[in-house]
Amino acid sequence: MSGQCKNLVHISLIAVAIVNSVTAESCQQLSPCSCKMSDGFVVDLSSISNTDQTPYFQDVLRQGSNNELYSFNACSGFTEGTGSCSNVALCMVSISGPIEQYKSLGSQTSASFSVNGDVIDLHYDDGDSGAISVVHLSCDEGTLGTMDPKGSAGGPYEINISTKLVCRNNSSKISAGSIILIGFASIVFFYIVLGVVIQKVVRKQSGVHLIPNYELWSSVPGNIKVGIMYTVKCGKTGHHFDKI
What we know:
Elements: H1 3-23, E1 27-31, E2 34-37, E3 42-44, E4 57-61, E5 68-72, E6 90-96, E7 99-106, E8 112-116, E9 119-125, E10 132-139, E11 146-151, E12 157-163, H2 176-202, H3 214-232
Parallel strand pairs: 10-12
Antiparallel strand pairs: 1-2, 2-3, 4-5, 5-6, 6-7, 8-9, 9-10, 11-12
Helix pairs in contact: 1-2
């Protein structure tokens, strides 16, 4: 592969990365239990969070288990049992006969948000226990909040919560027209960035000639004017379309 081809490949990859970073969905954290989506929609879990140092979701049994329970409170810390679950956001208790073992899965100080398609993820980690956990928040218009712990299969502890608090109403959803405009703007951005870089690096151009296809775009205003005049004067402009 020639040097110019390698440069074009690298430039294309950089441009794609730039476009992806511009259009990627995100949720800017406002507090340990709230964040703001890129379209302005605010996710606020305070309605499913207690303020009296007790968990809103308390001792929810993991499906398929009879001795593994989870408690969760998004906005403020709670204390449960006699183990490490002191001022935490998420706690797991394992029961073996009369013995109960409590394990912290993270506190509000470690909370962070991310977006994965239609699901908003709330991440935690616990420095003492080394536990990493993810609370998956999915839309369900029919419930304020239900929790379904999945536990850990060697990776992070995973908790599914269905709640109407993450459902965007019709006015806050991105419309089809907006999606088309965003896509068009991304293509234009990609075209300009890649074109300018190619003109500069590969073709060694400068000034206005950095604009990709400058001759074509610079002729557009004149061609539009000719077209308008031709239409208004019913073709009596002295111009012919073969000149456009």
